[in-house]
Design brief:
By secondary structure, the chain is an alpha+beta fold. The protein has 14 helices and 10 strands. The protein has a 3-stranded antiparallel beta sheet with strand order 1-2-3. Strand 1 and strand 2 form a beta hairpin. It starts with 7 loop residues before the first helix and ends in a 19-residue tail after the last helix.
């Protein structure tokens, strides 16, 4: 290749297209063929100065192993999106990645970096991007967006925008995609070495789902059972306060209240001894309780059931503790009393007096927690029906069940078990932490 002191004609050629006074240049780079660039001027001297600058930059980039021409981030990102679609078609990526990642790249990455040369992105740019992303929906471009449109099963849907910073896990997930994009660009020769992406996701507060300690669950169970009997034991009855500040005392439960509390108690016991998610429990039908009809009249210790569950986009079988079986009997009895017939396979397990699926027990569960003095855990975090699942998993781990078996039975991953459900107090596994060889 010519040296910088070579005649201009050996480095590049200037020319004008027919019908245009603007100068253009063409030159060749070893291994990259001939390149043409518009100089956007009709002055010959200025054209030569611009051509020199372009030629020197191109030859320097070529010596560094880069493409002779700088590429804007947007163009590179669109090439990467096309690569994602090809990999989805070949089965090398999940189908959902072919939808979620391009949308993420266009909204956030291209939205911030735009046409900036991809090889000019620095660590500082990435730090600034991270802060811009955290405030996108509250202070940035997203504050003007009212809803997000997406496609599901061939239908165009929309959802409202959540005006908050992205979660820690989402920030990390987006960082993974951005890192993959820049590494791909490096392999294509668009930049020499990808900048070091060290976006530090700020540590989130401890928001793991609250559970129950065994003594707390025993208190919850006792409080629930006490609410099933008539409140006349002290001779005064139970005081009830209305939202309008009226108050009165009741001495006997009406049938409707007693039924609701009985169903709630069965819900608590089944949730605690099966580990089902709330949505999985709501979706249960009697046809999903496998083996129940065949053993209904046998003693509990001679019965066994499996649960065919659906929820959160997942399905599978769950093996509950036998302690859950009597509470299926209770729900069967409630259905019979309300409907005057045995449940059919298509009838919901958690059913109202009209035989309809109970959509939520959240309010009743909160009232029960208040009655037991267990509304919040030791961190002050409010308990929810999901806490029953957490209790089940924690108890399984504390009592020696294999983590892999628990994860499979609960239709979750080992990572999620460790992140959300591994809160087992050291005091409860003290014996496992003191193997025989250390004991006096």
């Amino acid at each position: 290749m010519s040296t910088p002191t070579s005649p201009q004609a050996e480095r590049y050629q200037l020319f004008q297209r027919a019908g245009s006074t603007k100068w253009q240049m063409r030159f060749s780079v070893r291994g990259q063929g001939q390149l043409k660039r518009s100089l956007d001027t009709d002055d010959r001297g200025e054209a030569e100065r611009r051509a020199d600058a372009i030629w020197y930059e191109a030859t320097y980039r070529a010596k560094q192993g880069l493409t002779a021409r700088a590429h804007g981030f947007e163009a590179v990102a669109e090439e990467y999106i096309a690569q994602i679609h090809r990999e989805v078609e070949r089965g090398e990526r999940r189908t959902d990645q072919g939808k979620s990642e391009p949308a993420m790249i266009r909204r956030f990455f291209i939205g911030y970096f735009g046409s900036k040369p991809v090889d000019a992105i620095t660590d500082t740019d990435l730090e600034r991007y991270a802060e811009w992303r955290r405030t996108y929906w509250t202070e940035g471009p997203g504050k003007l967006i009212e809803h997000i449109e997406y496609e599901r099963d061939g239908h165009r849907l929309r959802r409202p925008v959540r005006r908050s910073a992205p979660s820690i896990s989402r920030q990390r997930g987006e960082t993974v995609v951005l890192r993959a994009l820049l590494r791909w660009a490096s392999r294509q020769g668009y930049l020499k070495t990808p900048p070091e992406i060290s976006i530090k996701a700020r540590r989130a507060p401890d928001n793991r789902r609250p559970s129950f300690e065994p003594h707390e669950f025993a208190r919850l169970e006792a409080a629930s059972l006490s609410r099933l009997v008539d409140p006349i034991m002290d001779g005064k009855g139970a005081e009830v306060r209305a939202s309008d500040r009226r108050s009165w005392r009741i001495k006997r439960l009406d049938d409707h209240t007693r039924r609701d509390r009985t169903l709630l108690h069965a819900y608590v016991m089944i949730g605690a001894f099966s580990g089902l998610r709330p949505t999985e429990m709501y979706n249960l039908t009697w046809g999903d309780v496998l083996g129940y009809r065949a053993g209904r009249h046998k003693p509990v210790d001679q019965r066994d059931i499996r649960l065919q569950v659906r929820g959160k986009g997942k399905s599978g079988k769950a093996i509950p503790q036998k302690a859950a079986i009597p509470w299926f009997d209770t729900l069967w009895m409630l259905f019979q009393r309300s409907m005057g017939r045995e449940p059919q396979d298509t009838d919901p397990v958690f059913a109202s007096e009209q035989g309809k699926r109970v959509s939520s027990v959240a309010n009743g569960f909160t009232e029960l927690l208040k009655a037991a003095g267990l509304e919040r855990d030791h961190r002050g975090i409010k308990r929810t029906p999901y806490s029953l699942r957490h209790f089940y998993i924690s108890e399984q781990l504390a009592n020696g069940a294999e983590v892999m078996d628990v994860a499979r039975n609960c239709r979750t991953s080992l990572v999620m078990i460790d992140k959300h459900y591994g809160q087992v107090r050291l005091e409860r596994v003290a014996d496992r932490l003191r193997p025989e060889w250390t004991r006096a």
